[in-house]
Amino acid sequence: MLAAMTTFASRLTRQPLPYEPDAAADVAASFADLDPALAGLLGATAGCSPYLRGLMVREGAWLREALAQAPEAALDGVLDPLGDLPLAALGDGLRIAKRRTALLTALADLGGVWPLETVTSALTRLADRATDLALKRLVADEIRRGKLPGATTEDAETAGGMVALAMGKMGAGELNYSSDIDLVCLFDETRYPGQQQEARAAFIRVTRKMTALLSDLTAEGYVFRTDLRLRPDAAVTPVCLSMAAAESYYESVGRTWERAAYIKARPCGGDLAAGERFLKALVPFVWRKHLDFVAIQDAHDMRLRIRDHRGLHGPVVIEGHDMKLGVGGIREIEFFTQTRQLIAGGRDPGLRDRTTVGGLRALSAAGWIPADVTEELIDHYRAHREVEHRLQMVQDAQTHTMPTSAEGVDRIAAFCGRTPEAFRTLLRDRLERVDRLTEGFFAPGAAEKGPELSARARDIVEGWASYPALRSQRAVEIFRRLRPQILKSLARAANPDEALAAFDGFLGGLPAGVQIFALFDANPPLVDLIADICATSPKLARYLSRNASVLDAVIGGGFFTHWPGTPALVRELTDRLAELPDYERKLDAARRWMKEWHFRVGVHHLRGLIDAFEAAKEYADLAEAVVVALWPVVCEEFARKHGPQPGRGAVVLGMGSLGAGRLNAGSDLDLIVIHDAQGQEESEGPRPLAARPYFARLTQAMVTALTAPMAEGRLYEVDMRLRPSGRQGPVATALASFRSYQREEAWTWEHLALTRARPLAGNPDLAGEIEALRREILSEKAVAARVLPDVADMRRRLAEAKPPGGPWEAKNGAGRLMDVELLAETAALLAGDPARRVEQQLRAGVRSGFLTATCEADLLAAYRLCWRLQAGSRLLSEGPLDFENLGEGGRAFLLREVEAPDAEALLARLQERVTAAAARIDARLGPETGTEEGEGDRAAG
């Protein structure tokens, strides 16, 4: 009796209405030998879906057997035998399994036998099984052919350390009926010491063959369309990467959308244990500890992109409506859920559920969403997914869009078991209700009562009525709701009147208010963003009051997207400058553009969307992009008067922190210029110049382009004292002179500076030659007997020239930034290693035996803490760090950045780490004492 109750027929609760009665009758008749309820389900399904009707005909014999048992057993009967198939038969076997699973799950869905989660789980089980078997069979074939170094037959069971991570809906176990599958393929490089390249080549072959095996359309059909583009930097990386390379990418340049993608990531094939270890290593990247409500700013731009897909705002029109991206659609619910998971999941691991329904329930349990709203959204989500499945079942199409004709919508209504009128009414109601529920969480609540204001503050606020931004009645109405929240946020500053003045400058600079006030009104966290800038960072607030136009970038909708990287920035600035014919307008445009991006980096850092090291890279990317894009503009303008550059022209090199790719909010640019006239004595132009003065004046023109105060301010301060002979040397150096100087005259500190030199702009061939020369010099000058005494002497002089400025000093002094950087450069020089960043330079020192691993760890611990403090303080204020006078917001920002509970704990940690680092440096270079003067002054500069 119990067994009978578990059969397919005994669990039927619904069925479609046959849209094509004749087709339904034909199929019902051909299955007349089955239970009448089953025959009716088959007929009604065939009357709505040509695709499923074809599968019934093709798989009729199997279907009769499957429907005679429980659907769970039938699915096992499809998937389990796949494990016995050899590689040669696997492709056809998987395609047959796909047909049968598609037919079984469709009937279980349409008949109400399985709920949504069981349907999507069944589809995902097939995808997991197919991926896992394909990987293991293909890796076994590589092993058999001797292409995977050191691997044995037993290693095939773990795919030789290769794993496929399921992303998106597959990772969450939520595949829809015609989903493609998103995979990231990785391998455990630790299993192949010294043979990683050969192993990588084998795994790349496996990945490509797996994709073809799953995706290619044959006489038996296809298994799954496979997408590999979610891997790190997919445009330039191979289809399978080492786990170390992937982890390094995410730690250094991983972007916000990639964090969101890994919410659902799950090992699905190959070495599952290795995949779990990799995901565990990524936990700090995906789930950041310090995200709070302001993290919703990251989601703001995603929300705007969803709205872009909606088209015109207005009443829902069923024909052509996108069930995924349209108003009130599936993505709205997923976005609603994932946004809140990202906000709080770093602090609460219980919120890290991969599934949408599970995520909503976890958020409700934690008090983030009211229980009634949660259950209503879950109900709408399931209903939407069922409609989506029926759209796809009609012709096995990867579509989410309702038909554009009334007849097409009527077919979907019948497929859902409803009359056209009832279906339209219910679907419209659900879409509009989802829209109201999700919109409600982004719309502002009732205005709070504002704080008590000082007399000076009242004067400022009363003056707002005269500002251009508040001329229209609509702007006044919106701003009236915003004002109490703004004033309350500003009142939390250490100096509320000063913060209010900064906001006043911003408000007075707005030419109009309706658009931005409406944006604030719909997105309260954006109000917090502006108010907190004024309340937290006096420096950034002053920047904002002087450069209110940077908020155009926020309004533009791309402010919270992922960081584009240097090449994209160069292209964007180059294109912008190319649109302007006038040189001065180009320079002003460059300033506006740079300030928008610079402001964005500061805000992202201030709000905890990126940390100090991510901000450092972005500031450096931005500076490099400015130099790279501006250099040809300056050269072209200079050539109009004096002709093209003689010979191979010149190359601009970034030195110091710019060369190392790590700047802070207040960094200037260390640059030098090297040229090669190739014997050409003078330029050819209206006013020709001899080669040496040509390049000197060209260099001065570049410096002026960067530093000159214009209507839009200046770009950067520039320091060229790291050129040969410092201030006494020419501003541009000939290649031959540079070569001879470095080999015969340069001081040790100049060779240390060379460790971080990096060509940025100019002739590529010349840049390549300069880089080769740099490496040669570093190798030639790696003489410890000369370098170490010089560096020790230099360290003593630096200590005299730049002593610590107080207990919170992070840059100058023993064991602090400059001290660690000095030792790192020394390590790179002694190793003859071309590494530019501190971490890589210290690692070179360990490899060469100059440093121990323990020493490296102590130095890095001090360096990282000091960098976070220095970068944070430069964002907050111009002068030395005065922790007590930062204000509540500034102190909280710094404590969050360094993960310290309070100021006392932070100061104790700082002293402990710099003391340990100083001891390590003393052991290598000698104590930091002395009063001599000379070369240390120039090195310190």
Plain-language structure description:
- The protein has 941 residues and is mainly α.
- The protein contains 42 helices and ten strands.
- α28 runs parallel beside α30, α30 crosses α39 (853-876) and α33 (735-744) runs parallel beside α35.
- The protein is globular and about 100 Å long.
- The N and C termini lie far apart (89 Å).
- The relative contact order is 0.05.
- Mean pLDDT is 88; it is low at 1-5, 290-298, 442-447 and 930-941.
What secondary-structure arrangement, pairings included, does this model have?
Layout: H1 2-5, H2 21-30, H3 36-46, H4 50-58, H5 60-67, H6 71-79, H7 87-110, H8 116-144, E1 162-167, H9 168-171, E2 181-187, H10 196-215, E3 226-227, E4 240-242, H11 243-253, H12 256-261, E5 266-270, H13 272-281, H14 283-286, H15 296-310, H16 330-344, H17 356-365, H18 371-393, H19 406-415, H20 420-440, H21 455-462, H22 473-491, H23 496-508, H24 514-522, H25 524-536, H26 538-546, H27 551-555, H28 566-578, H29 583-606, H30 612-642, E6 649-654, H31 656-660, E7 669-676, H32 691-707, E8 718-719, E9 732-734, H33 735-744, H34 748-754, E10 758-762, H35 764-780, H36 784-801, H37 817-831, H38 838-848, H39 853-876, H40 888-898, H41 903-925, H42 935-940
Parallel strand pairs: 2-3, 2-4, 7-8, 7-9
Antiparallel strand pairs: 1-2, 1-5, 6-7, 6-10
